[in-house]
Amino acid sequence: MMRVYWQILQNEFQTLFRAKWVLGYGLIFLLLTDTLFRFAGGGTEVWVSVSNIMLLLIPIISLIYGILYIYQSRDYLELLLTQPVNRSTLFWGLYTGISAPLTVAFIIGAALPLSWHGGLTEGTASQLFLVLALGSLLTFIFVGLGFLMGLWFYDDKIKGFGFSIVIWLFMAVIYDGLIMVIIFIFGDYPLETGIIAVTMLNPMDLARILILMEFDISALMGYTGAVFNKFFGTSLGSLTSFGMLTLWLVVPAWAGLRIFKKKDF
Questions:
Q1: Where are the chain's structural domains?
Q2: pLDDT band at 246 (very low <50, low <70, confident <90, very high)
């Protein structure tokens, strides 16, 4: 089974890297990081800016490509399923075969400008590692969500794309607005524990908060920044956050696998 898995993974890698848009995806981050090094002077400012764009760009691209792959590869999927291939092996091969090239393109694009700008110092090494690690995690999380939406709405592309856009819009924009409304309305009550619990239900918010803690700019967020710093600034808070991100990584992929194994293509 592992041999079949690696064959599928290798094939997806080759297919994706032959597609020029994947190289373009990495080029976006390369040009962005290079430009920031030239005009922002390097250091913390660069990685704060990269992380802000990463938190919006990676989820939507990963989500859309995940669902787009399911819809555009129907004939290919049905052909593979006629072969003596275990469905679980096929699913994981396709899933990692899509997620890994996107991750590699992001990491190379974001980190390569360091080689000619020399922006890696002892103080920024941990910041760079965190940004790249969170970007990689978000890629796998949202490709998994894309696979889940594509398989769930396999026969209805409009619903699949519609729900995917709504998921991204809700997590990227609406979710934070709802939290601020709750804080405004119920500000006289002890909301610290509730705010932390609600924040953990959104992987984009979790990644954003971990970046705020690493760059030590949570003070700019006022009350919510103080609440987050009190919990997420501790070792327990960091471990809990990465545990929740791992849960976000596992659950959509596991749900997609269940649908894939039971679906009559």
A1: 2-262
A2: very high
